[in-house]
Amino acid sequence: MCGHFFRRDEFRSHFRNVHLDIQASVSGWFQQRCPLAYLGCTFTQPRFHPSGHPATIRFCQDVSAFVLQPDVPSSLCAGAETCSPLRNAKQNLDPLSSLPLEILQHVAAYLDSFTLVQLSKVSRLMREVCATLLQERGMISLKWEKKTYSHGGSSWKCRKKVWEFSSLFSSVDRWSFRDTPSMSEHLKSCSFYQRDERSEPVALACLGEVIDKYAAVKYKR
User: Residue range 49-73: average pLDDT?
Assistant: First the structure.
């Protein structure tokens, strides 16, 4: 359905969370859009998060898949420092990379497949750590290439086999409502919400007919 590959033990979780939970309810349930979206308003707000830990469902353009992004408190990012590429390798190590290899492997074992893919792109060390989990968590994918012959025909052949992780995020068994403000709060400042305030009285469309019926009944009495 989505064109992605998963391990057999991952397919059930992917199909339930992505295709049944998210895609089937993305319009109106998981993602609430402004009522004036038909006029061009692009405001949206998520309505659900995994029960037990705050996270946001997002669509990752790099892998063309839905992913689960944890909501990290701003207090944890306040003291973060950016490593300078001009410093040497030993001084440029972050606190995580300075841990023993056994501890890094133990920590990485708790990550989902999508997070392992992102972690393997951080550094050579993290790539080696993630590589130790390929036998247990990875899968073998076939890389195909199209071969064209001199007579004009063509065929597809397997060029190589590679180990890789899937785009599966952590399995979600239950969803909970997020503490998001009402859509009316957005409408107060929405540029597409135009009010037409009038002070003079306006006659209702059926008011004349009601008056005529009331007068006819009163005349009969």
Answer: 84
